[in-house]
Amino acid sequence: MARPRTPIGTYGVIAHRRLPGGRHEARTRYRDWDGKSRHVQCTADTRPAAERELKKKLSERSLFHPGFTGMSADSSFPALVDYWLEDMEVEDRLSRTTRQLYERNMRTLVLPFFKDLTLREIGVSRCDHYLKQLAKLSYNRARQARVVLRLALGLAVRHEIIPRNPMDHVSRLRRPPRIPDSFTPDEIKSIRAAIRKWEQREILAGPRPDEQLGHIVEVMLGTSARIGEVLAIRLQDLDLNGPIPTVRIAGTIVSRRGEPTHRQDHPKTARSVRRVALPAFALRAVRARLQRVSSIDPEELLFATRAGTPFTTNNVRRRLRDIMDEAGIAGVTPHRFRRTVATTINDAAGINLAADLLGHSDPIITLQHYVRRNETVNPATADYLEEAFGLAS
């Protein structure tokens, strides 16, 4: 009969021997995390001290995979955060932009609350209380904090540091009701007029505005594209000579910490890659911009700085905000143009076409977050009710 093996993490009889010079050695065989038995030894001035050092070394020896930091439920939460960030880099499943976003949310939203706690002290009640208090200030912040806290604690569960993820049992966050806002036709006229006035103003010194901001707004209105997607349009993405002029939305502009702003060769999602027909007003803006582009390189960006580098999305947002503040028009953001397009197409042709234009995989996303609800019910209901319940004359 085969001799049963000792369990992983246990050791055999401790042997002692006196070393030359008078020091003492304590040694034993230890069954390691991979099932192999290895000799482990320690030396000290006395036999009892050598045995104590050996037992301490064995108790601290990792029972997990090689390179693991030896964390336990008594480790601090900041130690887990550091390990979680390293693990994301090693896995390399997420884009660098997403990793930087997760790190920012963890360090600014979550870590200040949990930095003095051990993992053992982070339970369901504490997580639930934290998220509810944060949600009172901002639902979006609470949602972002919930994501990264779940991921970090999930890593601790997978590596058997804690037995369960307390985030699995916190109460659900309640999204506050919000009606997507869109521009009216009169508001669009006012926005166009304000941009035109700013671009045509008299300049005493320096270069005149090159009208790119107005063209960018027209393309956003004519395609429903996100601001980063519009700024990432290349000359090769344009097909203006066919029976239906189109633009292919196939990238976006990203600005990551520690990297220059550059074009990413895919937009937010795979469904976001789409070819969009250009309405006449957007086509005029594109043609006007092409007259100012001297390069014929198909990789050249349609919209770029005077140095030929990509615009940052924040730069365009800031310039738009400054112009609108000067004109006394509030609430103008690039994303609101996208919601305006979604509402217009939904009212004219239904939610499915609106979702296709915006590049959404599910029309529910378009309906919940982009379309402004029309409060007017079809007046035909009055005729039906009159026919059913009206008083005879």
TrEMBL record:
Domain Tyr recombinase: 178-383
Core-binding (CB) domain sequence ranges: 75-157
Signal sequence residues: none
Residue ranges of coiled coil: none
Transmembrane feature ranges: none
One Pfam family here: Phage_int_SAM_3
Annotated keywords: DNA integration, DNA recombination, DNA-binding
Stored PROSITE patterns: CB, TYR_RECOMBINASE
Record keyword Cell membrane present: no
An annotated GO BP: DNA integration
Keyword DNA-binding among record annotations: yes
GO molecular function: DNA binding
Designated name of the protein: Phage integrase
Natural source organism: Microbacterium esteraromaticum
